[in-house]
Write a structure and sequence with these properties.
This protein is an alpha/beta fold. Helices cover about 45% and strands about 15% of the residues. Bound molecules: nicotinamide-adenine-dinucleotide.
C-alpha cells in the first residue's frame, strides 16, 4: 500500500514535539503540505527546521497559536482558514488528586483537550464537506476507556473526544469526510519524558527502561509490555488520513499496545 497525500493540506495541532511532530512528519513523508502549530515562535521554528531536515523539500507552514482558548483558535484560523486534514492532537495531561483539582484546572483541560477540537472542526468541516473529501482525527487516549484514578480530569476530556468524533462522523455521513479517534497508550513523547524525568535522573535509566517499568507497574494489562514510540502512534494516524482508509469512520482506533483488556 502506498499512501499518497499530495495536494492535501494537513493541520496537526500541537505539532512542535511529541506525537504531533511524528504525525506531521508521517503526513509530510506521504506528500501532504503540513501546518505546524505550537505556542511560541521558537518552538515552531525549531520544529520546522527539524521537519525540513528529515523530509527534504517538504511544503510546510507555521501557525503560532495557543489553542487553550477561543481567541487562540481564532488566531490559528486566520492563517489556516481551510484544510483537508485536521488532526486534533493538542492535549495536556498529568496526574492530580481529585480533591485537589480545582475548577480552573478542570476548565483548562476542557478548553485545551475538547473545545480546541470542537472549534476547529466547526470551522474546517464545511470546506471539507463541500469539497467532498476530508479527514478529521482526534488524538484521544486509552485513558478515555481506562479512566485513571489519578487523572480523572484528563480521562473525562478523552472520553468526551470519543463522543465528539463519533457524533461528527454521523454529522458528516455520506460526504466523503471521515472522522475518527485514535487512542494511544503510554507513548514515549516529550511530555511523557518530562513526566518520567525525575525517575530517569534518580536511577540513570533510559526513557525506554522507565517507560517499560511505568507500563508494567501502572498498565499491567499491556500486551506489548512497554511504552510505544511516537512513530508507532503516528503510523495509525497517517493510515486513517489516507485515501485507503475511506471505509473507516466513526471508529475509535486503539494504538494502546493492548492495554485496554477488551476484544473490540
Ligand atoms: P507532548 O507534551 O509531548 O507534546 C505536546 C505538544 O503540544 C508540545 O509541543 C506543546 O508545546 C504543545 N502544546 C501544549 N499545549 C498547547 C496548546 N494549548 N496549544 C498549542 N500547542 C500546545 O504531548 P504528547 O504526549 O505528544 O501528547 C499528544 C496527544 O496525545 C495529547 O492529546 C495526549 O493527550 C495524547 N496522548 C498521549 C499519550 C502519551 O503517553 N504520551 C498517551 C495517550 C494519549
Amino acid at each position: 500500500m502506498k499512501i499518497d497525500l499530495s495536494g492535501k493540506v494537513a493541520l496537526v495541532t500541537a505539532s512542535t514535539g511529541g506525537i504531533g511532530f511524528a504525525i506531521a512528519r508521517g503526513l509530510a513523508e506521504s506528500g501532504a503540505e503540513v501546518v505546524i502549530n505550537g505556542c511560541s515562535e521558537a518552538t515552531v521554528n525549531h520544529a520546522i527546521q527539524k521537519l525540513q531536515q528529515v523530509v527534504p523539500g517538504v511544503a510546510v507552514r507555521a501557525t503560532i497559536a495557543d489553542l487553550s482558548s477561543a481567541q487562540g483558535v481564532e488566531t490559528l484560523l486566520r492563517t489556516v482558514p481551510q484544510a483537508d486534514i485536521l488532526v486534533n492532537n493538542a492535549g495536556i495531561f498529568g496526574p492530580q488528586d481529585f480533591y485537589g483539582t480545582d475548577d480552573e484546572t478542570w476548565d483548562r483541560y476542557w478548553q485545551t483537550n475538547v473545545m480546541s477540537g470542537v472549534r476547529l472542526s466547526r470551522a474546517l468541516l464545511p470546506g471539507m464537506i463541500s469539497s467532498g473529501w476530508g479527514r478529521v482525527v482526534f488524538i484521544s487516549s486509552e485513558s478515555a476507556l481506562n479512566i485513571p484514578a489519578d487523572m480523572i480530569h484528563y480521562g473525562v476530556t478523552k472520553t468526551a473526544q470519543l463522543s465528539l468524533a463519533r457524533g461528527l462522523a454521523k454529522f458528516a455521513a455520506g460526504s466523503g469526510v471521515t472522522v475518527n479517534s485514535v487512542l494511544p497508550g503510554p507513548t514515549m513523547s516529550d511530555g511523557f519524558a518530562a513526566m518520567m524525568q525525575d525517575e530517569m535522573d534518580k536511577t540513570g535509566k533510559s526513557l525506554e527502561m522507565v517507560g517499560k517499568e511505568f507500563v508494567m507497574a501502572n498498565r499491567p494489562s499491556s500486551v506489548i509490555q512497554r511504552a510505544a514510540t511516537v512513530e508507532e502512534v503516528a503510523n495509525m494516524v497517517v493510515y486513517v488520513c489516507s485515501m485507503q482508509a475511506s471505509a473507516t469512520s466513526g471508529a475509535a482506533l486503539r494504538v494502546d499496545g493492548g492495554v485496554v483488556d477488551d476484544i473490540v
